[in-house]
Amino acid sequence: MPKPMLKRSVQQTQTNNVLSVTGNQKQNNQNQQMNKMKIDKLLRQKRSKEYMDALHKLDVGGHVHNQNKVDEITNAIKREFPEVEISGILLGYVSICYLGKPYEVHTLDIASGIIEHYKSGETLPNGMEKARGIALHGGYEFIEVYVDCCRAVSSNGTVSVISI
Amino acid sequence: MSDRVISQANLSYIERNLSAIHGEIQALENDVDAVNNNVKVVYDQVGVLANEFHEFVYEQKKANRLGQAEIKLVQIRQELEKKYGHYDIVRRTTTGILQADDLGIVKKTTISNATEELMISTPNYWLAPCLVALSAWISDQPELAEKALREGIKRNDEKTSLFFAIICMRANRKSACLKWAQRYLANQDEENLDRKAIIVIDAYANGLMGADTEGVISREMTKWLEELAEKPGFVEQQTTQWTEAINLKREPIENSGYTYLPKYSNTWPVLEDILEGANLHANILAYLMDIFEQESSSAPIKAQLDKILTSLVTDFDDEELPLRKKEKFEQFVVEFCGDEDRARQSMAIEETAFETHKDFTQLLTDAAMKPESSHASVATQKFAIALSKEWILNAYNDVIAQNRMKIPTEIEINVDTFNSKTTDGQNEAQLVNEFTQLVTKEKEAALAKNVLTGFDKFLLIGGAIIAVLGVGMIFGNPLGGFIAVIAGIGMVIKHFNKKKQLVINEENIKKNYEQKLENGLQIIRAILAEVVDFRIEFAEKDDESAKVVDFLEQITPDQYVKNLSTSNRRIKM
Question: Which of B419, B400, B426, B394 is closest to B538 using CA atoms?
């Protein structure tokens, strides 16, 4: 009979221990969940005019790579989401390309900081292909592609969330 | 040998005996069957008897329970009378004062004297000071009214506030009514609103409390919403809640009007789905416009408020609850002649009748989108939509985007063996060319198969050789030679028949493939035309979403709290 009691007390010590791996993991998961909710709330907010203007420049100046322009845009993105470390969750932007045929869409890859224009039939890299259809037909200004969802941004800055 | 004879003789004897035994067994079996049948009859009769006995026992138990219930009822009522009888006097006096005042046939001094006595005889009961306050108010004694009110609030803030909110509403004192209602709502938990609170909100939305010019109630609701919004995940939860409610208005397409796309495109299920999603916009717009164009009637809410007032001044108080529950249960037992199960069922229904609890946002969603089940008035629907505008817009924008996300860039065309794609139905030349090439290729392949086999070719030469050999054989072996000649000629004829058949087959193949080309091109052109129509129809229907968004953006909550300028009831002073 004393045996189970002994075991039980050991288990209790483990769960109550501050250094307990399982306990910390649980807490970490809760924190992550909480952070995600906060981030979702922040990212639901209407986008500012400055941000919209910056992203609008994606299509200006042809499809030639221009580092200054990219820097300008990435700075505008950082200013838009000061509370969030956006680079970890935002993969990039996809929007319709007005350069004309054969170009269809263009992307801004957040990790590499490169603006690319894609012809029809060319697959978009880094998980951005999923936003191609809505970028082409959705009538949105641009699509923000995240790890777990897409956020379609209208010309007035309104955000629509598309879970994947 | 002798053994064998004896054996035969014994067998017939044994056989006879066996058949005799068989006969006897048969008879025995019949007897057993008869006994069996009799036993069955006895069993049935015993069963009937047992049922009757059980029924008797059950009826007896019920009768005993009924007797017990009647005795218990008397005991419980005596206990109630002893413990809370004085509460009942207060309740009856309140009802009487309200009725008397409505009619204006009782002197103010009589009312005042009656209430003051009750105050002394019912310590701790919230309704007593409220009654004093009411009579002081009627007798124009503000100081006494205030003192009594303070005591009422001290004893039960929530009930006192609700009581005076409804009294003020009846008296058409709208400003005071708003303040009392605000006090009542402030006592509520926004995550757990009961039915009374829901009716009060309904009354507010219907303008029964007058125009909330100072924003007394709307501030309380804004506070609720702010507190709820502080909770992590609230916005997303709201969006999900509204998305589900909005999607309830989706209706399946019964007749899309498209003939070829459903038959010849594997993409059709997606197209049908997004078209259904785009149709939702018109449905939602019609739904919202219908709500906002309707004139609402506040008569049912007034009746409900009267019910609340009646329940406040006639129903038992929390401390009486255990005894009252017992009383109600025994009452049901008496009503159902001692049947405890039925009494329990009725008790469960009775208990849940007024125990509907909802969180404030769920209340708004249900009122706006499920008026049938939530019994919300049109005014409350308008108010709920206006108050939830931001979440509806969020959810609605998500619904639009989710549907647009599914728009296929390319639409498949699957006609028989032909599989290709179109984006906007403009690549007719390319598809015609692809299809023609495919049909030509298939035709050539079919024609290539339409040739004589090695055996068919052999029939001509082989037949000729056999026939010639047969002619040579006629003189030596006339019968063999003749057969060989016939066989040879037959083979040659078969060869030519095969050849003739090939020509016919060739013609058929060419004809069939020409038909396939013609029909196929017709279908492809029809599909392309339908793709063009589909893209236009989808774009038009999808554009309706902008109208819904505009409609929602123009709504403000204040605008939709109905303002009633007059009331048909007032307490005469």
Answer: B400
